[in-house]
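Researcher: We're teaching a course module on how sequence relates to structure. For the next exercise, students receive a sequence and then see the predicted structure as C-alpha cells, so they can try to spot secondary structure elements on their own. Here is the exercise chain.
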Amino acid sequence: MTIAYNYLNLPKTVTKGSDVLTYIYDATGSKLAAKLNSTVNNFYTGAVVYKGDKTIDYIPASTGLIRKVGADFVRQYNINDHLGNVRAVVNQSGTIEQASDYYPYGLAFNYNNLDKNRYLYNGKELQNQTLATTFFGVYDYGVRHYDPVIGRWNSVDPMGEKYYNISSYNYAANNPLLFIDINGEGPLQFLKSLASSVTAAITVGIQGGVEVKVAGQPAVSLYGNAGSKDLIGVRGGNLTHIAQENSPTRYGTSIGIGSFGTSTEAEVVKTTQTEIRPILGTNSKIPIKVDVEKGTKTTSISAFGITLEGTQKAEIRTDKSTGQRNVKTTEPTLSTVKMDIGSKLDIKASAIVGIDVSVDIKKVIEAFREL
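Model: And here is the predicted structure for the students to work with:
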C-alpha cells in the first residue's frame, strides 16, 4: 500500500494494486471529499455530509448523527466511554444499532454495521474502504491518519518539535489509557486545557497571612494587605504582565472560617495626566501635571453559602504644583447578593512576597474528560 501526501502533509492518494483512494481538501486542509477510483464515497461540507450522488447521507450532531433514511431523518445517539470512544449507537426508538469494543490502541474487536456509523475510536471517522481486498482501516484525525493496528500515525507530528524526546509517529505519548490525541497534533492540547484553568499572580508588598476559598466561600482566612503590587500575572495559562509601572496597588483584609467570613479589598490605579487650565485674568492656558488615583473598594460578607457584596468607588486628583487635592466618591452600593455554587479553589499566601492562585475545578474536570 502506497500513500502520497500533498503540500500540507495530508494523505492525497492511497494506492493498492489497481485501486486508488483519493482525498480532496480545501486550502486550509479541511477534507472536502473522498473517492475510490472514480466513485465518490462522500462529500464533506462541515454541517452536512453527502453521498456520492449528492443526496444527504448524515448530519453530525453533538450527541451522534442524524441519518437520512429514505424520506425521513433518523436520530442516532452515541454512548461513549471516558476516552470518547463510541461504544454503542442507539436509534431514537432505543434499539442498539452498533456495539464496539477496542484494544488499547484503538483496533476494534470486530467492525460491524459501518453503514450506520463510522465514527468509532476517539469519535474519529474510520476509513472503511477496501483496496485490492485489503481493508484500509485507519482513523482520520484531521491533521493525520492513525493506524490502530500498529498504534502509530502514518505521518510526522506537525508539533513534533515540542516532543523531541519521543517519536513523531507515536500515539498519545504511548499511553492510550490516559491520553488521547484531539486532532493529531500531540497531547499538548490537554496541557493547554489544564493550564487554562489557572489564574495566578506573584505579588510584593506589605502583606501577610493565608486565605483559602472553595466555591467563593472561606474555608480558612486570616489575611492582611497594606499595599501590594503584582510582579507577574498569569491568566488562562498565559503570561499577562510582568512588573508594570502602572499596575494597580491592592489593599485588603479578610477573616473567616467554614462558611462564615468577611473581607474588604481595594484596588487603586495611579496615573499622571496633563490638564490644560486657564490663567486667571488672562486668555492664556498652561499645562498642569495632575496625579490621578482611581480606586474601587469591595466589601463582602459570606454565610451559609450566600454572599452579600457591596462596592464604593473614589477618585483623587492632586495638583503636582500646588498639592491641592480634589476627592470624588460614590455612595456605597449593594452590587450583588448571590449564592455561590461555583467550582473555584482560591489560595492566597504571603509574607512580604505573596502568591495568589485560583483554579477552576470545572475546567480541570473538563480537561481530563477530553483525555
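Model: If you want an answer key for the exercise: Residues 343 and 362 are 6 Å apart (CA to CA). The radius of gyration is 30 Å.
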